[in-house]
Amino acid sequence: MLHNKTALVTGSTSGIGLGIAKALAARGANIVLNGFGDVDGARAAIEALGVQVMYHGADMSKPAEIEAMMHAAAERFGRVDILVNNAGIQHVAAVEDFPPERWDAILAINLSSAFHTTRLALPAMKAANWGRIINIASVHGLVASAHKAAYVAAKHGLVGLTKVVALETATTGVTCNAICPGWVLTPLVQKQVDDRAAQQGISVEQATRQLLGEKQPSMQFTTPEQLGELAVFLCSPAADNVRGAAWNMDGGWAAQ
Predict the structure, then answer these.
(1) pLDDT value at position 192?
(2) Active-site annotation holds for 151
(3) pLDDT in tens, 28-56
(4) Cα–Cα distance, 176 to 133 (Å, whole number)
(5) Which of 17, 111, 231, 249 is close enough to 12 for a disulfide, judged by CB 3.0 to 4.6 Å?
(6) Hey, which residues does 174 pair with through a beta bridge?
(7) How many CB atoms lie within 10 A of CB 3?
(8) What region holds the Ketoreductase domain (predicted)?
């Protein structure tokens, strides 16, 4: 389905990004990996699916490095057909205690990086009259939680950016949509569960139920594989007229 297409997925050496990269690779897309995780493991997982893969270590808080990555991808594969803006970081603190440098870093990586990749990917996508931009926002792009000011602001901004790009490309073969996951069992979230269990002296199972019970009515984690399959759908002809959507996969979180 995606043979001869190239997908660039930021923050794709683990977790959600790797899950999406694997799902796209399984449909035949060549993959550009990016991130600070287990590069060799991620590369091997993609190569096992029989597609070409390259890695670029751009720091997504630095526009010049983002530009270098986009040029390298175009040089290797011709152009980026599918852009998945997934890179993200988190910091939790009350607004009055929030370190300004953490605010700046979260806005840079979770929001501004998507603007830079998008502006650089769009010309070739428009010239080919085909492209898919998928922004991995969050249920926090739709609703808020206390102590996550920068993350919630950035993810709301990412949903807004998604809508603008969708309108600007509405008469073309390029689409732009956001996926808004709730709790996903990534190494990052597993660490939160383990920390909670340790702090409260409860089992990991109890800590998991507690975490999910606070927000996610399904009491199930969304998986990177499920998010990957949604990304595949958004790249399919069936999604040609899905434009500017903020598609939550959150176990009912935002329905409350």
Answers:
(1) 87
(2) yes
(3) 999 999 999 999 999 999 999 999 999 99
(4) 5
(5) 17
(6) 131
(7) 9
(8) 5-173
